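Whether sequence alone determines local backbone shape is best considered at the level of individual chains. For completeness, the protein is quoted in full, as a sequence line and a line of structure tokens:
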Amino acid sequence: GEIYNYQELRQQLLEAGHSFSTQGDSEVLLHGYEEWGERLPEHLRGMFAFAIWDEKNERLYAARDPFGIKPFYYTLADGCFIFASEIKGILPHPSYKKKLNTEALEQYLSFQYSALEQTFFQGIRQLKPGHFLKYDRKTSSLELTQYFVPELYPGCSEKQKEKTGENPEKTDMERWVSLLDQVIGASVKTHMAADVEVGAFLSGGVDSSLVAAEFTGTKTFTVGFGKSQTRYNEMPLAKELAEELNLSHKGKQISEREFWEAVPEVLYHMDEPSGDPSAVALYFVSREAARKVKVVVSGEGADELFGGYCIYCEPNALRLYQKLPSLLRKGIAGLATHLPNMRGRSFLIRGSMPVEERFIGNANLFTAKERKRLLKIKTKALSPQEFLSNDYEDARALDDASRMQYIDLLHWLPGDILQKADRMSMAHSLELRVPYLDREVFEVARCLPANYKQKKQVSKYLFRQVAARHLPAASSSRRKLGFPVPLGHFLTSETGSEAILRAFHSPAAEKFFNREALDELMAGRGFGRGNTNRKLWAVYAFLVWYEIYFPEEASR
């Protein structure tokens, strides 16, 4: 990890009487623990997962950064407390007996990532973002504490009143734009501090474009998927912007053959199954960048902080419809379920449900009915709605769009976005930094008025006004892309069809899934429309992953 304010903390600790023998940030953590104890993470600005052995108290102290940029895994096995930054670092330990956690599989089929605190490996857990743990060797007791909650206070923060000098609810748009512009610029500058050259990932979207416009490096990197797949090739857009910003640009065209050949390697480095195909794109762009630089900055986190997903505009679209009596809406929804897939059908169905029933995060793959048909095994996994119920309750005072945003900050961001970013970059020994996921930036973002985040069905509205100060109009208003993958094309090609068929008829597939349901899924029947490709991919990714991590079981 990286502690960006370690010089400032070092000076505070020197003034408090501490003596240092090195110039690095690791020693600052040790002295910080001596000075502040378990409250150490509250003083840190950065991305981190670390452990400190307290010899005096025979206690291990470990902490993970507020947003989950860096991973931390642990297990208790045969009286041993085992921990690592990768699951594969725990698996060889003689005290740990490897076994699949089937509850994680059912949750994965809903969320497209491992959503549980307990991983796909029974007994191995992740330390959640914004938490620290204490393991006492004398008593073999483990205590978990949350030190950071990404709470949102749209338009009503006393701290923000101090920053702007005005009541946040009355602060006009331009004042908010200036404030956000200031903290983003300062964060990018902070994240550029390094004794090696720093590059930047640059897609065609506004998030990475603003980072590239603000950063002081010269090298940018992107990937695309072939000249024939123009919708999925951001390289021309990235190259054009790089030239306007006077930056060098390196692009990589990923062929279909390269895509399929990389999948096992990608899933090996992910540690757990991932139903997000853009992990493959991140694998290749990280490889390209690692050939030129050791550190990159990237745009992860902007959508979650500033309201960037189109689905966040849904509450505004549903507002008038939801004024109808609940019973009437439920009756209309019941009739709509019998309609063929057509424009407006989803609106009528989703509009009959409160947000906590209809939104479980950015990926909502298989419904409960579909999971029941698909899975051969029975699990005790909670439904997605049950799993998220406490989080929704914590955010009950917020507007619906902000509640959705809060759910994504807690789950989608660390479980999907940051997981793949960390694993794919570290697979190539590349350090990836995310300037938007900074405590100072978040203090502003958490207070943005809801009507400034989504306005006139435009997502991330205020953030785009910031970007417009630094980017050409076309770049600041461009819709989200984020290294998109032509999944439909790849899955229906000869190579893709053969790969899916082989995996879906494997012993592992027979073990976990019902044959008839798999055949229907391959044929595009019985599992809805629109996201069938993502469903196919999620099942395929699990089966490939299972063969890698459970080869002795997969062949039976």
Notes: The chain has a mean pLDDT of 91. Residues 400-426 form the longest helix (27 residues). The radius of gyration is 24 Å.
